[in-house]
Amino acid sequence: MITRYTRPDMGRIWSEENKYRQWLEVELAASEALAESGEVPGEAARALRQHAKTDAARIAEIEREVRHDVIAFTTCVAESMAAAGAAEYSRWFHYGLTSNDVVDTAQALQIAGASKLLLEGMRELLGLLKDKAYEHRSTVMIGRTHGIHAEPYTFGLKFALWYDELERDIHRFELAADDIRTGKISGAVGTFAHIGPEAEERICAILNLRPAAIASQVISRDLHAAYIAVLALVAALCEKIALEVRHLQRTEVREAEEPFGAGQKGSSAMPHKRNPVTAEQICGLARLVRSNVQAAYENIALWHERDISHSSVERVVLPDSCILTDYLIAKTAWLVRDMRVNSKFMRQNLDLTKGLVFSGQLLLDLAASGMLREHAYKVVQSHAMHSWETGGDFRAAVESDTEIRKYLSLEQIEEAFALTRQLRNVDKIYTRVFDRKATSVQAQ
User: Fold this and answer.
1) CATH class, range 8-92
2) Which of 79, 163, 270, 410 keeps 20 to 30 A from 333, CA to CA?
C-alpha cells in the first residue's frame, strides 16, 4: 500500500485499524437492528455497543493461528467483552451473519470515506483549471497536431479542454461511488437463511448504505470494477495534463514548465538541468492505476456463489487505486496552480515558421475567390514546402505570387493571415464549456 505521500485522512481510511473499526460498526448495526426486531436481546446490543473493542495487533496475532481474518476479529471482540465483564453477551455478536456480510458492507463504508476525499480533490482541481482557463484565455500560442505546428491556439483552451473532461470524470465518479455505496447482510449464499431482508434494510439504513437487490455471498464485483475504472480515467486526465507540461517544457519549446524550487537540483551531472520530474511521476503512477482496472475486471467472475480469488486482489487494488488517485489529483493541482508560463516563447514559436500556420485559411480564401480548390491546394502547398525547406518567409512569397494576386488583394491576404480571425470563436467555446445553462437555452 502506498501511503507515504497521500493525505493523512486517506491513509487512515485504508489502515488495518480503520478496517476493523468499520467491521465493528457493521456488527454493532446488525446487533441493534436485530434487537429492534426482537431477534437479539436489547441488553446484548447495548452491551456490545458499550464494550466491544478491536485491536489490529491482537487480531493479527490470532489470525496467524486460526488463518481466518473474520474469526480472528470476532475472537478479539469476544476477548474485549470478557475483559469488560460482559462475556455472556458476546454470543450475540456476529449473530446470523457470514464473513462477507461484514467484509463487503464495511468495505463499502471505507470506499464511501475515500470517495468523499477524492471528490474534494477533484473539485479543487476543477476550480484551478477554470481559473487558469480564464487567466490564459487570450494567451496566444501555436496549436500542434502530431507534434507539428498546426494553427493558432490559446493556452487557456488547453485548460478549458481539461476542465470539460474533469467535469465528465466527476459525474462518472459520483455515479460509480453512489452505486458502490451498497451493503449486503443476506447470508452465506444470499438467501437470507438466518435473518430476513427487512433486517438487512434496517442495518444498511443505520450505516447509510443501500441494500443490494440481490447478492451471492458477495456483492457483485462489477460495482468495484466500474469504480476503479473511473479512478483510472481520472488518473489518465492527470497524465494528460502532465504529459502536456512535459512537452511544453522541452528546451526547444519552453512555453511552460513545472515549478522549480530555489534550492532544487535537476541533475547530479548537469547543473543547468530543470527536469519535469513531478510531471513524469504523474505519468508513471497513472499507469499503475490503469493496471488495477484489469485485476478489478477479472474479479467479476467467481466460482458459483463465491470464492476468495477476488479478496487478495482487492486488498491491494482498492486502497492503492484510491491512494494513488488522491496523490495524482493533489500533484496535478500543484502543477496547474504553480505552473510557470512563458508567453514570450509562445509568441516566438507561433511566428517561427513565418506565417506557414495560416496556410489553411489562405486555401479557403482562394477557393472562395474562384480558384479551384485542388489547384489552390497545389499553389499554397508549393510555397509552404519551399518555406519549410529553406526557412523563407511564407507570407512574403504568397504576396509576390502573381497567380494568387489575381484572386486576392493585399488586404485580403492580410486578412488570411490575421490572428484575430483565427481565434474569433474562442469566447463562444468558453460559453459552451463554462456556461452550460446559457448554451442549453441557446440550443432551444
Assistant:
1) mainly alpha
2) 270
* Cell (9 digits) for 13: 481510511
Length of the chain: 444
3-state secondary structure of 188: coil
pTM above 0.85, yes or no: yes
With a cut of 50, say whether residue 111 has pLDDT above it. Answer: yes
Q: Which CATH class is domain 99-342?
A: mainly alpha
Tens-digit pLDDT profile for residues 233-264: 999 999 999 999 999 999 999 999 998 667 76
Percent of the chain with pLDDT over 70: 94
Whether residue 37 lies in the annotated active site = no
Spacing of C-alpha 19 from chain mean position: 24
What does DSSP say about strands 182-183 and 148-154: parallel, antiparallel, or unpaired? unpaired
Give DSSP secondary structure letters for 40-79: S-HHHHHHHHHH----HHHHHHHHHHH--HHHHHHHHHHH
Residue 365 contacts residue 403 (beta carbons within 8 Å): no
Asked if 380 contacts 359 with a C-beta cutoff of 8 angstroms, the reply is yes
> What does the pLDDT read at residue 343?
96
The DSSP result for 151-218, as a single string, is EEEEHHHHHHHHHHHHHHHHHHHHHHHHHT-EE----SSSS-SSS-HHHHHHHHHHTT-EEPSS-SSS
What is residue 12's predicted lDDT score, i.e. its pLDDT?
Answer: 95
How far apart, in whole angstroms, are the C-alpha atoms of residue 444 and residue 436? 13
Alpha-helical (H) ranges within 262-409 are: 277-298, 309-338, 343-351, 359-368, 373-390, 394-399, 402-405
- Taking the C-alpha atoms of residue 133 and residue 165, their distance in angstroms, rounded to an integer, is 13
Q: What is the pLDDT of residues 294-352, one digit of tens each?
A: 999 999 999 999 999 999 999 999 999 999 999 999 999 999 999 999 999 999 999 99
Nearest to 112 by CA among 200, 185, 180: 180
User: Is there a common fold for 99-342 and 353-443?
Assistant: no
What is the gyration radius of the CA atoms in the chain, in angstroms? 31
Catalytic (active site) residue 267: yes
DSSP three-state, residue 140: strand
From 37, 138, 267, 400, active-site residue? 267
State how far the Cα of 213 lies from the Cα of 182, in Å rounded to an integer. Answer: 9
User: Which is catalytic among the residues 146, 272, 304, 312?
Assistant: 146
pLDDT band at 1 (very low <50, low <70, confident <90, very high): very low
pLDDT in tens, 146-186: 999 999 999 999 999 999 999 999 999 999 999 999 999 99
Q: Which residues contact 371 (CB under 8 A, 6 or more apart)?
A: 379, 407
Q: What is the CATH number of domain 353-443?
A: 1.10.40.30
Question: What are the residue boundaries of the structural domains of the chain, listed by start?
Answer: 8-92, 99-342, 353-443
